[in-house]
Write a structure and sequence with these properties.
mainly alpha, two-stranded antiparallel ribbon, 8 helices, elongated, RNA-directed DNA polymerase, Reverse transcriptase-like protein
């Protein structure tokens, strides 16, 4: 499940087996479904039993493998390349989930493009259309490298107030590396 994209019919069969185990009185005996399966899949904190939607769980596990490939580029799977194997096709199926939740962690900002990369928490691509200052290309242009702090005036003059506030709340790392 963590390495291969399972067909939706197989995931539905897994859920069916779990439901039978939960509701049946014994082997071959029918039981009463006291609650809809989707309600059982709600988190425990929200009143459900925390069961997983198998199809969504499968995609999440594949996204986790994709995350490992990004963070460990010297791993065997990453070094083999994107040959059209079943494993690669499966991990590729989770690309959308991975990309939608991924963003940069700012170090010194030397490798992060201000107007193209996802680096402001909670902000998507609509931010990048507000280009007020074309001279700023990298996040490092917004950082005072000597004191390792944001250039507050520049940030506030370049971005709308709500986005500037989010940027100024991003902690700056002491090391030079940017990461995901």
């Amino acid at each position: 499940m963590a390495c291969f994209l399972l067909p939706k019919t197989l995931c539905a069969e897994f859920e069916n087996i779990m439901a039978k185990f939960w509701w049946q009185k014994g082997h071959g005996k029918k039981g009463i479904h006291w609650c809809a399966w989707r309600k059982l899949c709600i988190l425990k904190e929200n009143g459900g039993l925390g069961f997983r939607n198998m199809s969504q769980f499968n995609i999440a596990m594949l996204a986790k493998q994709g995350w490992r490939l990004i963070n460990y580029p010297n791993s065997l799977l990453a070094r083999l390349g994107n040959l059209p194997s079943l494993t690669w096709k499966s991990i590729w199926a989770a690309k959308g989930l991975l990309c939608s939740g991924m963003g940069w962690r700012v170090g010194w900002g030397t490798g992060i493009l201000v107007w193209e990369d996802h680096w402001i928490p909670g902000k998507d691509a609509e931010v990048w259309s507000h280009r007020n200052n074309n001279e700023i290309k990298l996040v490092s242009d917004l950082i005072d490298a000597t004191n390792n702090v944001w250039k507050i005036d520049l940030v506030e003059n370049t971005f709308p107030a709500d986005i500037a506030q989010k940027i100024l709340q991003i902690p700056l790392a002491e090391n030079p590396g940017d990461g995901f």
